[in-house]
Amino acid sequence: MSPNGENTAITNEIIMCKESLSKSASKKRRIWDITEKMTEGLLFLSAFIGVVTIILIFLFLFKEAIPLMADPAANTLTSKNWYPISNPPVFGLLPLIAGSIIVTFGAIVISVPLGVGAAIYLAMVASPVVRETLKPAIEVLAGIPSVVVGFFGLAVLAPLIKDIFNLPTGLTALTGAITLALMALPTITSISEDAISSVPRRYMEASLSLGATRWQAIKTVIVPAALSGITAAIMLGIGRAIGETMTVLMVTGNAGIIPDTFLVPVRTMTATIAAEMGEVARGSDHYYALFVVGAVLFLMTFVINLVADIVSRRMKEVE
Amino acid sequence: MSPKVAEKVAFHVLRAMAAFIVLVLIIVLWDLFSKGFPALTWEFITENPRKGMTEGGIFPAIVGTFYLVLATILFALPIGVMTAVYLVEYARESWATRIIRLAVVNLAGVPSVVFGLFGLGFFVLFLDFGVSILSGSLTLALMILPVIITTSEEALRAVPNGYREASLALGATKLQTILFIVLPNAMPGILTGSILGVARAAGETAPILLTAAAFFLPRLPDSVFDQVMALPYHLYVIATQVPNADPKIPYGTAAVLMILVLGLNLAAVLLRSYFRRMRRV
């Protein structure tokens, strides 16, 4: 073989190699391309699971709530009593809604001043070290399971309230309100703190340079500027309190009457579902009535969260 | 009152409010742990409840919670991460993404007992899974989905765009970039979110009340279609329905549950701050 021929052979070999390489590369590439398309579809589908869930929750709650509407027992929905096992049964939603509202209201009255105050302190007054210690500590409070808070309320708070107010039972709306305040506090504090911290520094600097004290600046400039964020925090706190189940189930005494003070037992919507759903026969009026309660609860929290979302979105737009 | 004095007073009041919250936290934790720790014996953790749950241990409840949480994360993690990847890497702002985001926000606000009710109606009765680990963990998975989606989204957004561009410029496909560059870099954040989700699932009672939890079941489940005992439900049962139980039992159960949930939360917080510091370096 001439040296020239050998060269050609080698060149040919190289070309063949290159071709097969690029062939396998393009084959690989094609596989990746197909996978790419399929992945995007798959990801979109899984992203839609959240949407499907919300729709399913909506459908199932109302599907199971509607049969009661066709029943004579539906007339009792606006009654002032919840006597599900009397004959004929009475499914008055008012005492349950009133129960939920009174404990939530009590919880908010306690937790909003404390939570917002602590948030202002953390964001504006506290030294960085204090802030970095207290913020996680308050987050710990958020991590305590609701059943444990309920147990604490039952074992410690209820006897205390019974003694202080000299009541026949410590399981009252007040006990529920205090334990719920405990659970709503971290939400309110940490979201308010975020809102206050995100007010631009120059607001504070401008106020100080005009001769205001830090407190005057906080009171008249910073807090008003963060107000929509604080409102969102409060709305989320309300949402958390009204939807909380185990705590109120354990500490509010579960009496289905419309309360006139904080010192009587009440029965909330959530506690009613949790306490009674396990024992009802599927398809009975009572069963459907509990789904009506669930649907009402779902709608209330839905509206509260929607308002919170709109308010916090407006906050972001202002920034 | 001069403005200076007013400021002093106001700051003291604010400080007192923050201190009050911390004080309450300390009282709650002190009460639970000081009475709970003495109950934590080896027998308590490894034995079945005895004599109508007035004596004995909580072993089946610990195992039950472990199974529930494990199954929950198996369902929730892939779906949550995939949703986050779609929202961050693929989706353009459109009506579809707006609806997805709205759904996630609303899902986060649905009360846990409503999840329970839905789980009962859909998984237990409609799909006929029965009151079982499967129904309970699917219900819990839907509940913690928003936590995992939001934290994963945040973690994916924190990966610098330069990483993606460099990878694409080297000829990697989009999927290759996501699998080999973006996801590994976002892993700490995703892990944090998963731990938070697990902690939440482990502590919730209302969703499993109607879908998975057994009042008393002194044996371990042998399939996903079995009922289980679970720590939070067990605490509820003992505290409210077993009046003559040794007070050590509810306090001990509460302590175990708190150690589990707060331990997971702490792990998540530490992990997050550790990786944030790593990134800053």
Helices and strands in order, then pairings?
The complex is a heterodimer of chains A (319) and B (281).
Chain A lengths: L2 H67 L12 E2 L6 E2 L2 H32 L2 H16 L2 H20 L7 H25 L3 H9 L4 H12 L1 H17 L2 H6 L17 H8 L8 H34 L1
Antiparallel strand pairs in A: 1-2
Chain B lengths: L2 H34 L5 H5 L2 E2 L4 E2 L2 H32 L4 H15 L2 H15 L6 H25 L3 H9 L4 H30 L2 H4 L21 H11 L6 H33 L1
Give the tags:
heterodimer, A: 319 residues, 2 strands, 77% helix, B: mainly alpha, MetI-like fold, globular, Phosphate transport system permease protein PstA (chain B)
CATH H-level superfamily of chain B = MetI-like
Structural class of chain A: mainly alpha
What name does CATH use for the topology of chain B? MetI-like fold
What is the quaternary state of this protein? Answer: heterodimer
Family (chain B): Belongs to the binding-protein-dependent transport system permease family. CysTW subfamily.
Protein name (chain B): Phosphate transport system permease protein PstA
Domain ABC transmembrane type-1 (chain B): 62-270
Membrane topology (chain B): Multi-pass membrane protein
Short description:
Chain A has 319 residues and is an all-alpha fold. Chain A has 11 helices and 2 strands; from the N terminus they run H-E-E-H-H-H-H-H-H-H-H-H-H. Chain B has helices spanning 3-36, 42-46, 59-90, 95-109, 112-126, 133-157, 161-169, 174-203, 206-209, 231-241, 248-280; strands at residues 49-50, 55-56.
Task: Please provide a written account of the structure.
The complex is a heterodimer of chains A (319) and B (281). With 319 residues, chain A is an all-alpha fold. Chain A is built from eleven helices and two strands; from the N terminus they run αββαααααααααα. Chain A has a two-stranded antiparallel ribbon with strand order 1-2. In chain A, strand 1 (82-83) and strand 2 (90-91) form a beta hairpin. The radius of gyration of chain A is 30 Å and the shape is flat. Chain A starts with a helix and ends with a helix. The mean pLDDT of chain A is 86. By secondary structure, chain B is an all-alpha fold. Chain B has one domain: Orthogonal Bundle (MetI-like fold). Chain B has helices at residues 3-36, 42-46, 59-90, 95-109, 112-126, 133-157, 161-169, 174-203, 206-209, 231-241, 248-280; strands at residues 49-50, 55-56. In chain B, strands 1-2 form a two-stranded antiparallel ribbon. At the A-B interface, helix 1, helix 2, helix 3, helix 4 and helix 5 of A face helix 1, helix 3, helix 4, helix 5 and helix 6 of B.
